[in-house]
């Protein structure tokens, strides 16, 4: 074993620059994300689940065409893009929720967070860099999933309804899937950073996205409609559709804005707590 | 230099660190000692800003840790050896740390070689032994070539070879002029390496001194004396102010009189002396003596503590 302490290979003078520091932060968070195998598998699962559920649901729609109600047929005819993109992603978005929570809570359960905060004692850059890196990664993966899903879904639906990339609003909706997914990833990171425990955070986000939000549809009266429309993921999903139904309270971009506002609010709370709490 | 001024930390209604003040000088290895639960780890976490102090603060070269730009280039800390994501490789763990400090990639390889983990650098740390995790922690602490090192129980889980290696490393780091603070709950570990000692119990400072002073001040010096006419010698020694107890084999244990004075007294009284041996209390005894009243846990834990000491002593013995 070596018994001499080698001199560190480091540039002697490092000009303090906030931009350079943050670039290093981004690199560091990217290294963390890519160096854990479960992250890679979760993202592969995201793509596979999205594509296979899209194929399955659209095949069911086509094969059951005569059996479904007029209303359901109408919905598919009106917004085939929304139908295609929603069918797989409705499930695979859970992978983003779980992964977003895990990349935060995993640091706490393993203790890596202590090493991280020793390196970046100002703390908030850690959260911001983590959110940006994960959002960018999820955006790319979700776009791959959305684009492939659309091509497969459109091919399956073609016997009943024609839809192509060139149709009005289609490209925006496909882009919208990536944007929604990226924001959902940041939303999940914020949720994970609040309780800092995997089980609690995953229960909270899945309960919210999969159970509470859809259930809000059952709330009576006008305010029920408003509550439903303004809940984060309901609002955010508007951007993955191509039509503006008379019942929709928010346009696609308004919905995205509402979801972004929720997410930013949560990240601010998470950042405040990260700064204040003992690690 | 590390300066801790009137530092306090409260968790709920428990005062884990209680108005603690001390300084750690560069160029020395400073042992930070106290029984389990004395507040050593908490103090270290407060110094590096992982926990927020309830009152006052600690500074490193006159700056708070949180104010340091690229802090790993100034302070290297090993706080929990196990704090590694099991799915990440040693190389990637050090790499993500290096990237936050604008350290080049080759520095990662350097510290991995330095701690002897070259062959397992690309393996996931989930399969590492405690000793290998300790080496990882030391590698992380050395990553930025820092002038201040804060190491919490770095010897835990190391094999004899590893212990010796850490001791030499600490020595060398101090000789290079760095400030080295190293905690332990075992005095015997410190005896080999530390120049200075900071002893705490229940979050409060018990002693800060050099190692030599600490032993001097805290150990009960006694002298074993064997003489054919023990009874006569005994009364002379008591008369001279000694505290004398007689053992079953007739040997006298004398306190409060140095060995030379005992010899002189015996010669003056023309009494033969067959043995005259000063007993230097071990560091462990001195440490136990000092922290005895500050043990946070019940004294029934003492046998376990002593068993640990015996085990540590055995390890130390084999590396001498």
What this model shows, in words?
The complex is a heterodimer of chains A (279) and B (320). Chain A is globular, with a radius of gyration of 22 Å. Chain A is mainly alpha-helical and 279 residues long. In chain A, α4 runs parallel beside α7 (170-193), α7 (170-193) crosses α8 (198-215) and α7 packs parallel to α11 (252-276). Mean pLDDT of chain A is 91; it is low at 9-13. The two termini of chain A are 34 Å apart. In chain A, 43% of the residues are buried. In chain A, 75% of the residues lie in helices and 0% in strands. Chain B folds into two domains: 2-217, P-loop containing nucleotide triphosphate hydrolases (Rossmann fold, 3-Layer(aba) Sandwich); 220-279, Alpha-Beta Plaits. Helix content of chain B is 38%, strand content 24%. Chain B has helices at residues 40-47, 90-100, 105-114, 130-142, 160-175, 187-193, 211-218, 230-239, 259-268, 283-291, 302-319; strands spanning 2-11, 14-24, 29-33, 55-60, 75-78, 148-152, 179-184, 196-201, 204-210, 222-226, 243-246, 252-255, 275-279. In chain B, the strands form three sheets. Chain B has a six-stranded mixed beta sheet, sandwiched between helices. Chain B has a four-stranded antiparallel beta sheet with strand order 11-12-10-13, with helices on one face. Chain B has a three-stranded antiparallel beta sheet with strand order 2-1-4, covered by helices on one side. In chain B, β6, α5 (160-175) and β7 (179-184) form a beta-alpha-beta unit. In chain B, α2 (90-100) packs across α3 (105-114), α3 crosses α4 (130-142) and α5 packs across α11 (302-319). At the A-B interface, α1, α4 and α5 of A face α2, α3 and α5 of B.
């Amino acid at each position: 074993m070596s018994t001499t302490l080698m001199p560190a290979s480091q540039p002697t003078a490092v000009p303090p620059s906030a931009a350079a520091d943050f670039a290093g932060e981004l690199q560091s968070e990217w290294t963390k994300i890519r160096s854990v195998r479960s992250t890679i598998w979760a993202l592969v699962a995201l793509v596979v689940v999205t594509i296979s559920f899209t194929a399955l649901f659209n095949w069911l729609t086509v094969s059951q065409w005569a059996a479904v109600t007029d209303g359901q047929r109408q919905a598919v005819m009106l917004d085939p893009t929304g139908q295609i993109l929603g069918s797989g992603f409705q499930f695979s978005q859970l992978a983003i929720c779980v992964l977003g929570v895990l990349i935060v809570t995993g640091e706490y359960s393993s203790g890596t967070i202590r090493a991280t905060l020793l390196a970046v004692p100002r703390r908030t850059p850690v959260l911001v860099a983590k959110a940006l890196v994960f959002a960018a990664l999820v955006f790319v993966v979700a776009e791959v999933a959305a684009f492939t899903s659309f091509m497969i879904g459109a091919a399956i639906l073609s016997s009943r309804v024609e839809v192509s990339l060139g149709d009005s609003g289609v490209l925006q909706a496909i882009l919208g899937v990536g944007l929604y997914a990226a924001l959902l990833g940041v939303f999940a990171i914020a949720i994970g950073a609040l309780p800092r425990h995997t089980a609690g955070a995953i229960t909270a986000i899945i309960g919210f996205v999969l159970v509470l939000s859809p259930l809000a549809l059952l709330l009576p009266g006008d305010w029920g409609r408003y509550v439903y429309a303004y809940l984060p993921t309901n609002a955010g999903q508007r951007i993955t559709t191509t039509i503006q139904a008379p019942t929709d309270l928010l346009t696609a971009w308004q919905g995205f804005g509402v979801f972004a506002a929720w997410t930013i609010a949560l990240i601010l709370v998470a950042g405040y707590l990260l700064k204040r709490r003992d690690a | 230099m590390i300066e801790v001024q009137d530092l306090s930390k409260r968790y709920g209604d428990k005062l884990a660190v209680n108005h603690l003040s001390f300084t750690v000088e560069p160029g020395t290895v400073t042992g930070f000692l106290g029984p389990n639960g004395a507040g050593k780890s908490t103090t270290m976490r407060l110094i590096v800003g992982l926990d927020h102090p309830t009152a006052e603060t600690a500074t490193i070269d006159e700056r708070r840790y949180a104010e340091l730009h690229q802090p790993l280039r100034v302070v290297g800390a090993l706080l929990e050896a196990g704090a590694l994501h099991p799915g990440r490789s040693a190389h990637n763990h050090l790499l993500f740390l290096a990237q936050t400090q604008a350290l080049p990639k080759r520095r990662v390889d350097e510290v991995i070689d330095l701690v002897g983990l070259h062959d397992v650098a690309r393996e996931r740390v989930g399969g590492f032994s405690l000793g290998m995790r300790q080496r990882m922690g030391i590698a992380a602490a050395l990553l930025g070539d820092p002038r201040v090192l804060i190491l919490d129980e770095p010897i835990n889980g190391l094999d004899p070879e590893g212990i010796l290696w850490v001791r030499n490393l600490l020595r060398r780091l101090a000789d290079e002029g760095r400030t080295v603070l190293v905690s332990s709950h075992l005095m015997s570990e410190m005896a080999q390496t530390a120049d200075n000692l900071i002893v705490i119990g229940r979050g409060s400072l018990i002693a800060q001194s050099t190692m030599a002073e600490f032993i001097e001040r805290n150990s009960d010096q006694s002298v074993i004396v064997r003489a054919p006419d023990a009874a006569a010698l005994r009364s002379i020694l008591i008369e001279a102010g000694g505290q004398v107890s007689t053992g079953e084999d007739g040997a006298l244990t004398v306190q409060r009189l140095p060995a030379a004075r005992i010899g002189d007294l015996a010669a003056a009284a023309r009494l033969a002396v067959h043995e005259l041996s000063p007993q230097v209390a071990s560091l462990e005894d001195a440490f136990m003596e000092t922290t005895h009243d500050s043990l946070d846990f019940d004294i029934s834990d003492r046998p376990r503590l002593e068993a640990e000491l015996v085990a540590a002593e055995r390890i130390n013995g084999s590396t001498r």
